[in-house]
Amino acid sequence: MVMVKSVSKKYGDKKVVDNVSVKIAKGKITSFIGPNGAGKSTLLSMISRLIENDEGEIYIDNQNIKKCKSNALAKKLSILKQTNHINLKLTIRELVSFGRFPYSKGRLTEEDWKHVDEAIRYMGLEDIQHKYLDELSGGQKQRAFIAMVIAQDTEYILLDEPLNNLDMKHSVQIMKTLRRLVDELGKTVIIVIHDINFASVYSDYIVALKDGKIVKQGPTEEMIDREILREVYDMDMEVRDFNCNKICVYFA
Length: 252
Hints:
This protein has helices at about 40-45, 70-75, 90-95, 100-105, 110-120, 140-150, 170-185, 195-200, 220-225, 225-235, and strands spanning about 1-10, 15-25, 30-35, 55-60, 65, 75-80, 155-160, 190, 205-210, 215-220, 240, 245-250.
């Protein structure tokens, strides 16, 4: 379990995350939703220790992350940020192998390559795995970075807007893959996501943020609610039941 206790982060005079507390259960997909500037990505970065919280405490499996050694944390938790820039001439396969660094320190074993192959297969990249990153579309590159995170084989997987640059087909593929990682392998996935309908269909638990604070959190079926969503997004949207899912109609 991830425990976030009264966490805050300030940039200058502005609190971008303000006294946030949340419990994230194991073996579930938890989605952070909310408008731009709500503090979602900052909160995710603090959970992964990419940035340091100013106040409060964060625990993973009852251990304060500030006391975790970096290599031990990298075997427990992986994160993919919203923007990833690598200027090296790498193939997809080489990039995905970077996910094994906490274990191999660059000297990959047969076991490491098995994880690489499995991650490439999970993301449907077998046919293009030897292509260089600068030859790829934005969507192909995003899938390659997600494969790298999968190859890291951590219990907790954190993804900041993983559907960026993806068309509808590959967005669905990514979300189905995350669902499989949870349902088949028992992973715990935490994502920042803008598409409320993807959050509705694939998440187990939703945390809604606005202006750095949690507006509401709870099981998905409770969170996809007209009144809650109006409070979060300052707009009215109809919620319809479709194939046992709640779908938000916000473009009418």
